[in-house]
Design brief:
92% of the residues lie in helices and 0% in strands. It is an all-alpha fold. The longest helix is centred in the middle third of the chain and has 55 residues, at 5-59.
Amino acid sequence: MMDRPIVRIILKQVQLFGLLVRYLYLHVRYVQLHIHYYLLKAAGAALVEAVKMEYFIKCLSKYDRVIFATCIAVSIYILILVMLIRM
């Protein structure tokens, strides 16, 4: 059956299509791994900044901490108000 040229051509086409699908899958996976890598780098940088902010806040006096917390709370309330108004 393999002696027939048409069967040989069909088998070669199926193999070529399989290789093409595998090649495309590997490229999609490569892009996905790059996205994961850069997201992990961003998360690590955000964690480092959060630790720096925590130590900065610990160094503040009690009065300064109250002012800082008030500023954060007011900014959150303003963001919520803006989101409610836009809805």
